[in-house]
Each structure stands twice: as C-alpha cells, then as structure tokens.
Amino acid sequence: MKLNVKTLKGTSFEIEATPESSVGEVKRIIESAQGQNVYPADQLMIIYQGKILKDDTTLEANKVAENSFLVIMLSKPKASSSGASTASKAPASQSQPATPPAPVASAARSPPSQAPVAASEPWRLPVRSLQLFLILQLLQ
After folding, report:
1. 1: pLDDT strictly greater than 70
2. Pick from 46, 19, 18, 53: nearest CA to 30
3. pLDDT at 90
4. Domains in the chain, start-ordered, CATH in brackets?
5. Which of 60, 35, 31, 66 is nearest to 45 (CA)?
6. Dist CA 116 CA 42 (whole Å)
7. Are 21 and 55 in contact (CB under 8 A)?
8. Digit-coded pLDDT (tens) for 25-34
C-alpha cells in the first residue's frame, strides 16, 4: 500500500509498505528512501492521527489505510543521551565538587520557565511539547 509521509519541514514523499509491516520496518523504509543521514531509523518517530506509533506494532494494528498520511519527526539521538550520561558520570568521579552545582543550577532554572507557558507563546514550551504543537499546526 502507498503511504504519504510528511515531515515537520513541510516536505512530503511517498513510500510503499504492506499492512503487515511493523512500524520499525516502515522507519527503515523511510531511512533507505531519504538517507540515513537525513532520517535515521533509530531516531524517527512516526505519528498517525496524533498518536506516536510504537515500533513493534503493525500498520494494520494502528488502522493505517492506503494513502494515509504519516507525520515523521526526529527524536533525540539515543547514542548521545547515553553518551551524555557517561560523560556526566566521568567528570563526577574526577572532580566531584565541580559537577553537582551545574545540574542543580540548571534544574533550578527549568521549572520557572516551564510553569507560565501559554498557548500564545509556543516557543516557551519544553522541546517535546513544542514538537507536538508544531505537528498539530501542520495537521490543521
């Protein structure tokens, strides 16, 4: 079946998949169609009718039909987040007094900026919420 894939940048393209294809397989199809550097499968999130599809489910199970529109976006790289946690662990063991104040200071600043968020100020939303806001804007 043919599926229309739309990106957050507004571009769209078509892919071919079967109803029995898993979401993970569809991500690999998108990766091979658009390039690993552009849309790596391990960082792709596929959204259908406002719902983020899980890799181990099939298109059929998610009620994705012929010529449906899928929205794709990139999540944070998994390797970077694990690399960041190992990077933060290493300095902690080397210079323990210097490391704890930095996370505490950034954590102290985060909640006040997130608390007074209004729908008229989407740029003040946390990254995840901003991404979902943009998706909803694209779908309207």
Report:
1. yes
2. 46
3. 47
4. 2-74 (3.10.20.90)
5. 31
6. 33
7. no
8. 999 999 998 8
Q: For 108, phi and psi rounded to 5 degrees?
A: -70, -30
Tokens coding 31: 């990766």
Distance between CA atoms of residues 62 and 58, nearest Å: 6
Q: Where does the pLDDT of residue 54 fall: very low under 50, low under 70, confident under 90, or very high at 90 and above?
A: very high
Distance, CA of 5 to CA of 30 (rounded, Å): 9
For the stretch 79-102, pLDDT in tens is 544 444 444 444 444 444 444 555
Burial 65-92 (b: 16+ CB within 10 A, else e): eeebebbbbeeeeeeeeeeeeeeeeeee
Q: Coil, strand, or helix at residue 118?
A: coil
Say how far apart CA 108 and CA 102 lie, in whole Å. 10
